[in-house]
Design brief:
Helix content: 40-55%
Radius of gyration: 16 Å
Oligomer: single chain
Largest sheet: none
Order of helices and strands: HHHHH
Length: about 90
């Protein structure tokens, strides 16, 4: 299982290299109450299209092993791989 976890982490890392161009939602919605404030990311949360995990990572959720078969360490590694990827996608 550890080898498969390593492959998934490598796939997440590879996906970071193919990020879509970020959209500046504050330019699209300049009159939004959060525009030009530290809360500007709210504009993106409200207006960005929803993306599935497979669209975001190129990996479907079905490819992930059942959590019952993972050690606590493997769960933490996968979680970090996913969270680090999504942080890069949303600025």
């Amino acid at each position: 299982m550890q080898k498969y976890i390593g492959q998934l982490l490598a796939d997440f890392e590879k996906a970071k290299q193919n990020l879509p161009e970020p959209i500046n939602y504050s330019l699209l919605y300049p009159d939004h109450p959060a525009a030009n404030t530290p809360m500007e990311y709210v504009i993106e949360w409200e207006n960005a299209p929803e993306q599935s995990m497979s669209e975001l990572f190129g990996i479907s959720w079905e490819a992930l092993p059942p959590v019952e078969k993972l050690t606590d360490e493997q769960v933490v590694l996968l979680h970090k791989g996913i969270v680090q990827k999504t942080k890069k996608c949303v600025k």
